[in-house]
Amino acid sequence: MLGEPFWYNVMSMRPRMLSKYRYSLILLRELVVTEFKLRYQGSVLGYLWSLLRPLFLFVILYFVFVHFLKVGSDIPHWPVALLAGIVLWNFFTEVTNNGLTAIVNRGDVIRKINFPKYVIILASTISAFINLLLNFVVLAVLMAVSGVNPSISGLLSPLYIMEIFLLALGLAFILSTVFVKLRDVNYIWEIILQALFYASAIIYPISLVAASSPFIAKIMLFNPVTQAIQDIRHGLIDPQNTTLYGETHSILLSLIPIAVTLGIFIIGVIVFKVRSPHFAEDI
To answer: Cα–Cα distance between 130 and 91 in angstroms, integer?
Structure first.
């Protein structure tokens, strides 16, 4: 009998919760569909560009770094690991770049309609996630053709993808908020992304860095993007891909990138929530 009021209150909350978020979910769905359609509107190849862009980049990097410079020749199935890194990096950059300009691009809607502004950021990230799924189909085909045998730890890959997603989403919240007031952040973020691309061991195995400086390799692996990509490469493609735990042999140190990711995500949510009521007047 004592539990009856509690369960009654829980059940009575469900209709209120559903009605509260029903409008946001409907708006989110419409924004995702609209954004995905408009992205390739007027394009001859349309949605195929979602697959062709990372493939073209992969072919260029493969011939330059793998075929001619022999980078990664000591890592089994390195071309597959290279494509995996490119696909995941593109996902990270797409979430942050789309999120950065999302609020300003929807300024006309924000001025006219009162709705939760985070829906706009989520719509841009879901669009990027759809592209990621399409690209993973290509990656899976290449893995099958190359005879890659994923290990049991490959089952953790969705968690590492979620880590990249939360990091990128947190940054998108921060960047979109700053961009409303400071449009220069677009160019600043572009420079930062270029630096991060070369510092995240996307186009070369991090074992090359570890061979000359284990300390620098560890510092690089504290970057959540690098750590997540390396763990996915380790589990899905080949165990010879170096991981943070493999370098430090410490569970505590291996949790640092996860703590950084959660910290950035929480800060992003707080910053966005505080500033979002003022977007209409600031844009």
So the answer is: 10
| Geometric angle at alpha carbon 267, from 265 and 268, rounded to 5° | 60
Nearest to 192 by CA among 225, 240, 152: 225
Say how many C-beta atoms besides its own lie within 10 A of residue 83's C-beta.
24
Q: What is the per-residue pLDDT across 177-192, written as a single tens digit (0 to 9) for each?
A: 999 999 999 999 999 9
Provide the residue count of the chain: 283
Indicate the pLDDT class of residue 137, thresholds 50, 70 and 90. confident
Contact 102, 121 (CB under 8 A): yes
Nearest to 104 by CA among 31, 32, 175: 175
Q: How far is the C-alpha of 186 from the C-alpha of 142, rounded, in Å?
A: 34
Domain ranges across the chain: 24-282
Of residues 65 and 242, the one with the higher pLDDT is 242
Enumerate residues 6+ apart whose C-beta is below 8 A from 211.
Answer: none
> What torsion, rounded to 10 degrees, do the Cα atoms 64, 70, 74, 79 define?
30
Query: What pLDDT, on a 0 to 100 scale, did the predictor assign at position 272?
Result: 96
DSSP reduced 3-state for 190:
helix
Band (63; pLDDT cuts 50, 70, 90): confident
Which residues, including other chains, have CB under 8 Å from residue 24's CB and lie 6 or more apart?
Answer: 115, 116, 119
Residue 36 confidence (pLDDT): 67
**Distance spanning both ends of the chain, measured CA to CA:** 54
Q: Residue 15: pLDDT above 80?
A: no
- Has residue 156 got a pLDDT over 90? yes
Burial 158-168 (b: 16+ CB within 10 A, else e): eebbebbbbbb
